């Protein structure tokens, strides 16, 4: 502004001078006129000198103005940078406020407190985790009696400990527990003294530059569906209240050693060696089998509840998984290899099983509607499904025979608002029969799983005879979660879930015109369940 005023002043001075010269034309010269001209020339020279001085000041002021503009721009940039640093620091402080620091590591607490209820149309004698394979047929008295329980045992506590060795190397440990452990002294008679249970306890090491991730300890099995990548704590379980999830969901939580490699956090490849166990189906006629002297399980010893048995295993389960996050959705495929171990005829025997599976998570409508799908098929994979069908049965010569099974799960989750989620899921597990018939002088002996000669004639009669090997178990479930408080004091929510489950048995002996006929009876059992849950997440 000052430079502009000086420029105007200079222009005005020049105008006055020019006007004075033009308005005073030169007449005939005289001595006095010569004197006047000399005086005017001196005045003009003085004015020129003043003008030059004014022009020099204008130039100087313009330079100062330009320098001040540069300073203002630089100051503005500095202020903007400081504002960004303040915002980043504020974000970091907010994150740090959620953590505890101790000896250079950060500790993040998690979990929730739960108050839940369970209603079932038939008695299972189960807490918040349903026992799908034990849904009773009508020959059992409790199939005609409904069930109601209340439980706080799914309440959960967790702690994540993290430390950075350097910008490239990150170490962490994670502990998670609930109260669904059931020691022999635990009951609901008076004090409801249920003991804590280990869910996950593991350590991890991550190296950013090489894209390697190591995990050791108890965690979700590698074959459990992830929402992104192959990293712990991204496992995607169905959102329902039932702690046994849904038939068709493939999962386990067990000890393992896992190594994962990622390429730019887009493609992932992992391998995991996991703790083996085998679940068996023993035929009602097993005592009549030709091979009796065999070993396949053992009474639990030191460190275990002596009321339980453990399978005999000597090779870990091996799982390999590939996952991709190309920009839209998450996709994965995996393979599982297993060994089943027993001893008969004074020799040790390995029988091999395993399977393959896939999964995906797709945002059908961004931040509004998500779809997840997973499935698995193979032989001897029952323990990895929510329905807990058997892995193997016994052939007449004493060898273990893996049972073929297929699992499938699909579900939608609608994020109706920031406070409400609504979900609809369906899942199924189906087994194939693995039956044997051993001929003797007294007739054939029915062995294996799903044999049509098994007696199912009384499955629909109270107190009747019913072997009822499960062929299919499927469930449809729907529910919602309403977060009625979210703020600096945590989150509190209420949820409700309804599910309908059906179990269908393989065809066995049934009555036709008063006569027992093989394969004539395929009984079904049904269960309707309703759950509610209040949960408070303080961390």
Characterise the protein shown here.
Helix content is 17%, strand content 47%. It has helices at 2-23, 31-97; strands spanning 100-102, 105-120, 147-151, 156-166, 169-181, 195-207, 212-220, 253-263, 267-274, 294-295, 297-299, 309-311, 317-324, 330-344, 347-365, 369-379, 392-394, 400-402, 404-415, 420-431, 434-440, 443-449, 470-487, 490-505, 508-512, 515-521, 524-537. A 16-stranded antiparallel barrel has the order 2-4-5-6-7-8-9-13-14-15-16-19-20-23-24-27. Strands 11-12 form a two-stranded antiparallel ribbon. Strand 1 (100-102) and strand 2 (105-120) form a beta hairpin. The longest helix has 67 residues, at 31-97. It is elongated, with a radius of gyration of 40 Å.
How are the secondary structure elements laid out?
Layout: H1 2-23, H2 31-97, E1 100-102, E2 105-120, E3 147-151, E4 156-166, E5 169-181, E6 195-207, E7 212-220, E8 253-263, E9 267-274, E10 294-295, E11 297-299, E12 309-311, E13 317-324, E14 330-344, E15 347-365, E16 369-379, E17 392-394, E18 400-402, E19 404-415, E20 420-431, E21 434-440, E22 443-449, E23 470-487, E24 490-505, E25 508-512, E26 515-521, E27 524-537
Antiparallel strand pairs: 1-2, 2-3, 2-4, 2-27, 4-5, 5-6, 6-7, 7-8, 8-9, 9-13, 10-14, 11-12, 13-14, 14-15, 15-16, 16-19, 17-18, 19-20, 20-23, 21-22, 23-24, 24-27, 25-26
């Amino acid at each position: 502004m000052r430079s502009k005023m000086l420029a105007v002043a200079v222009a005005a001075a020049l105008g006055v001078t020019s006007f004075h010269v033009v308005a005073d034309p030169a007449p005939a010269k005289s001595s006095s006129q010569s004197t006047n001209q000399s005086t005017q020339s001196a005045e003009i020279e003085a004015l020129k000198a003043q003008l030059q001085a004014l022009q020099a000041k204008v130039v100087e002021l313009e330079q100062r103005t330009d320098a001040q503009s540069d300073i203002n721009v630089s100051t503005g940039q500095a202020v903007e940078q400081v504002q960004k640093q303040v915002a980043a620091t504020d974000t970091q402080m907010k994150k740090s406020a959620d953590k505890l620091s101790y000896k250079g590591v950060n500790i993040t607490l998690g979990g929730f407190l739960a108050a839940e209820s369970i209603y079932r149309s038939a008695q299972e004698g189960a807490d918040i985790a349903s026992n799908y394979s034990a849904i009773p047929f009508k020959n059992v008295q409790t199939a005609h009696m409904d069930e109601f329980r209340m439980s706080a045992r799914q309440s959960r506590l967790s702690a994540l400990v993290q430390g950075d060795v350097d910008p490239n190397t990150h170490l962490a440990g994670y502990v998670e527990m609930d109260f669904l452990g059931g020691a022999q002294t635990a009951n609901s008679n008076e004090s409801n003294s249920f003991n804590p249970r280990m869910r996950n306890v593991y350590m991890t090491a991550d190296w950013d530059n090489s894209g390697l991730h190591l995990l050791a300890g108890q965690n979700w099995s590698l074959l459990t569906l992830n929402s992104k990548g192959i990293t712990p704590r991204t496992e995607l379980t169905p959102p329902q209240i039932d702690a046994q999830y849904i038939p068709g969901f493939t999962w386990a939580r067990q000890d393992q050693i896992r190594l994962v490699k990622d390429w730019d956090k887009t493609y992932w490849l992992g391998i995991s060696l996991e703790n083996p166990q085998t679940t068996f189906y023993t035929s009602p006629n097993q005592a009549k089998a030709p091979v009796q002297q065999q070993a396949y399980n053992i009474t639990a010893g030191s460190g275990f509840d002596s009321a339980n048995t453990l399978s005999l295993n000597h090779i870990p389960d091996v799982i390999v998984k590939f996952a991709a996050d190309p920009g839209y959705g998450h996709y994965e495929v995996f393979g599982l290899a297993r060994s089943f171990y027993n001893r008969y005829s004074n020799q040790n025997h390995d029988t091999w099983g395993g399977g393959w599976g896939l999964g995906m998570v797709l945002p059908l409508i961004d931040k509004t509607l998500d779809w997840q799908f997973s499935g698995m098929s193979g032989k001897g994979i029952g323990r990895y499904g929510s329905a807990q069908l058997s892995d193997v049965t016994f052939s007449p010569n004493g060898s273990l025979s893996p049972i073929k099974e297929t699992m499938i799960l699909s579900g939608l989750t609608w994020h109706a608002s920031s406070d409400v989620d609504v979900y609809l899921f369906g899942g199924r597990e189906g087994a194939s029969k693995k039956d044997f018939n051993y001929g003797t002088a007294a007739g054939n002996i029915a062995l294996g799983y799903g044999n049509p000669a098994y007696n199912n004639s009384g499955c629909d009669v109270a107190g009747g005879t019913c072997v009822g090997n499960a062929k299919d178990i499927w469930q449809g479930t729907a529910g919602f979660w309403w977060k009625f408080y979210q703020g600096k004091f945590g989150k509190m929510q209420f949820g409700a879930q309804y599910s309908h489950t059906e179990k269908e048995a393989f065809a066995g002996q049934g009555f036709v015109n008063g006569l027992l006929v093989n394969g004539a009876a395929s009984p079904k059992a049904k269960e309707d369940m309703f759950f509610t849950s209040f949960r408070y997440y303080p961390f």
